[in-house]
Amino acid sequence: MITIAALKNLLDNLEEGVVFVDAQRRVVEINAAAGRLLGRDGDHLLGTACPTLFAGTRCARECLSGGRCSLVPGGADARKVQDISLRRPDGSEIALRMWAMLLPANDAGLHCSIVLRDRSREVALEAEVRERWRLGALVGRAPAMQALYAQLLRAAVSDASVLVTGESGVGKELVARALHDNSPRAHGPFVPLDCGALPENLLESELFGHAKGAFSGAATARVGRFEAANGGTLLLDEIGEISPAMQTKLLRVLQEREVVRLGENHPRKVDVRVVAATHRDLDAMVRTGQFREDLYYRLRVLPLHVPPLRERASDIALLAARMLGELAERYRRAPLRVSPEALTALEAYRWPGNVRQLFNALEFAMVQADGPVILPHHLLPEILAPGARGDERAPAVPGAARASAAEPRGSYYRRAMRADDERAMIRGALEEAGGNRAEAARRLGMSRTTLWKKLKDGRPG
User: Fold this and answer.
1) In the chain, pLDDT over 70 holds for what percent of residues?
2) Which of 84, 104, 201, 436 has its CA 20 to 30 A from that of 69?
3) CATH (residue range 311-456)
């Protein structure tokens, strides 16, 4: 027969913390590990109310409200585990994983056991991994993005000109910004200029500045972008759009490291690192005489290429999570998540507009969604079109009403995605939920009121 002393000795040798609670939710036994994790003397915790010990956690709130604990079998959602963060008496915080379970009837009066495990190292590792997937505002774990990060950080320590290439919408300005922020010039200004957005006469003034009276309307002298970026980084976005005459003037500035304002005849020294960006094929433009070869090689000392989104579909989940967080803050609503079926559609799409298009598509989906989950029918129709998913030979798919009866459970999402058939989606959800409308609404990511209205209007029938 195992004695209480032997049992306590066993518990005190465990790495996990163990707490036993009676029916009045008071601590009746606690092992040494639990005392260490909680930062308290275990013997002094005997008789302490469990809600006081774990103040601020969901478990404690339910105890204090008199409700039934949802972390034990028979509770509201039968969950047995919860990740919590506790502040200890010395002011430090600790991340714990907490298991709670009911105990069978016993003579010792033990009602519930709580097991605690330290998650601090796990949380630190998770943060470290997430950090490796980010560089400034860039997000990506795909090999192509990890390679870009390595090239970018190597380029950052140099002061040479950089040419960032990539399709429209891939985030070339974010690359330039990350390059600046990780360089010795990070303390200086970062000045971007879209060269394709201005006519040539205004572009020259924007770049080099002008003196008072240099042209009609020049009522005061104006500093150009090169001077404004002195000591920092100048991003010349869409460099492939500038005229041959402007290419010549820019080459001279890069060679001499000085600018002459319009209307003046004396040069001004500038200390600027130039980062150029373009979605055009400058190499081909050089061969056809549209872009100066000497300027091309002056800008392309360190080339960086940003991969298109279709080549790093594994990053879409990360990007979507970050973007939905930003959108939730903008719209002042709870963050949404993307259902697995909607994520499959997003990952299969070709994304001709790249990351910028993904953001716009998620904003559209957020507006359409009336629950916490983005489902396929919330996405733009072109994302669901077979041809847009990179399979131009994909045959037309019949409507959900002709879907195979042998389809697995949960396939109502896929049937709805193929046919955009809301009725099939709702019918499938009700079938899987056994007719329980509340559960069906939860699976569909909509409120029970919305589902009730759709059922009342006869739309799913």
Assistant:
1) 77
2) 436
3) 1.10.8.60
